[in-house]
Amino acid sequence: MTRSQLLASLLATAALAATTAHAADPKGNIEAGRVKTYTCHGCHGVPGYKNAYPNYHVPLIAGQNYEYLIAALNGYKSGERSHPTMRAQGESLSKEDIEDIAAYLSSLAAK
């Protein structure tokens, strides 16, 4: 391979990488969200689970709409939604955490 062919190949590879990076979902990092949902599974991953107090059905959140998850997590973070456990979880999340978690959960098939 000549030097000019090598340079052309490297430029093409760089252009493809840049295009792929821009094509990624700007709504959050799915892989990072997978890691960040470790505490969510304790309640939201158990079919038929009910919260002890107040007693109500805990929803499964896999496959939920991205925008809904963003709104719900921001609601818990701000105190607009009042569930004490979720409020504590929400308060600890950054904007990036919320976007990553919502990207991951919304990418899953609903169960």
UniProtKB/TrEMBL annotation:
Signal peptide per UniProt: 1-23
GO molecular function: electron transfer activity; heme binding; metal ion binding
UniProt KW Signal keyword: yes
Keywords associated with the record: Electron transport, Heme, Iron, Metal-binding, Signal, Transport
Any Pfam family hit: Cytochrom_C
Superkingdom, natural source: Bacteria
Domain Cytochrome c stretches: 28-109
Keyword Heme: yes
PANTHER family: CBB3-TYPE CYTOCHROME C OXIDASE SUBUNIT FIXP (PTHR33751), CYTOCHROME C4 (PTHR33751:SF9)
Protein name: Cytochrome c553
Species lineage: Bacteria, Pseudomonadati, Pseudomonadota, Gammaproteobacteria, Lysobacterales
